[in-house]
Amino acid sequence: MAGYADPPKSRGRPVGSVSKFGTVRTELEKLNFNPLKDLIGMLGKDETSEKSRVQILTLLVEYSYAKPKPIELDEEAAAAERTRITMSREDLIAIAKGKPSE
User: Fold this and answer.
1) C-alpha span between 25 and 38 (Å, rounded)
2) Cα–Cα distance, 102 to 49 (Å, whole number)
3) How many Å apart are CA 59 and CA 75, to the nearest integer?
4) Hey, where are the domains in the chain?
5) Cβ(42)–Cβ(52) below 8 Å
6) pLDDT digits (tens, 9 = 90+) for 6-38
């Protein structure tokens, strides 16, 4: 950490120790438990309800595709869009012919 001569030693897990997540994952691996494989297997079963299939697919799609970035709004373009003047068809035809409308 910048600004500390000696950073505090009580923050976080000690180096090399296993997190709770790591412990659970290790135990599940010992049992040959693979939730992803089980979820995919449930999709093909006739007993799986349509609602459950949608929930499974929704969960899996989050890990299959990147989430789209939020659209950044260009303030200048937004202001121009808000102040856009609508013209009649006749006005547009007159401008196209080079004759300004009255």
Assistant:
1) 16
2) 67
3) 35
4) 20-64
5) yes
6) 665 667 777 878 788 788 888 888 999 888 888
